[in-house]
């Protein structure tokens, strides 16, 4: 599937604001893939579809999580986490994308996971640092991303955890596992 077909499909699923974010993630993911010897085409495709399910009704997402036997623990955490695994499922079943690496990059773009692939790292980080993002600390992560993919990824997950702690929100175990595994891997 080429870029314009993919963008036309995803545009129908998103608000204008979320579509602009998607374009930012796409451009950033391509830059990161070029810099860190990732797969540029897969990075482009995963970025375009990463937030495909962002505006699906909660009830629909909940039903998919149950029927597809996704971890039921997801349901006890913030519903903001649901669009990532549900998105991977819908991109496969509705759009017809079969590439497991691309689907996994969509599936894990919010929580991360242990032993993330390079493509998963690129999409997680691109989602965090794309130019339309304005969280506190994002500029520092953009700087680190110029020279060190993993260090930038760790800093973005640290910021996300700190943000959730400050908001008194429960943190999904996979998010902690991701953070720990990246620190341990770094040595
Ligand atoms: O979909 P985006 O806004 O582009 O970004 P995202 O998919 O990375 O994150 C969506 C939301 O999920 C964001 O507001 C923070 C939240 N989130 C990420 N990790 C966790 C989390 N929420 C909880 N409760 N626990 C987490 O571990
Ligand atoms: Fe998302
Ligand atoms: Fe993210
Ligand atoms: Fe996103």
TrEMBL record:
Named from the GO MF annotations, one term is: metal ion binding
UniProt keyword Iron, yes or no: yes
Which E.C. number(s) belong to this protein?
A: 3.6.1.41
Q: Where is the signal peptide?
A: none
PROSITE patterns reported in the protein's UniProt record: HD
HD domain sequence ranges: 18-132
Q: Which UniProt keywords apply?
A: Hydrolase, Iron, Metal-binding, Nucleotide-binding
The protein's superkingdom reads: Bacteria
**What InterPro entries has UniProt attached to this entry?**
Diverse_Catalytic_Enzymes (IPR051094), HD/PDEase_dom (IPR003607), HD_domain (IPR006674), HDIG_dom (IPR006675), YqeK (IPR005249)
Instruction: Report the transmembrane regions from the record.
Output: none
Q: Which catalytic reaction applies to this protein?
A: P(1),P(4)-bis(5'-adenosyl) tetraphosphate + H2O = 2 ADP + 2 H(+)
Q: What is this enzyme's class at the first EC digit?
A: hydrolase
The record's listing under CDD domains reads: HDc
Q: What is the protein's name according to its record?
A: bis(5'-nucleosyl)-tetraphosphatase (symmetrical)
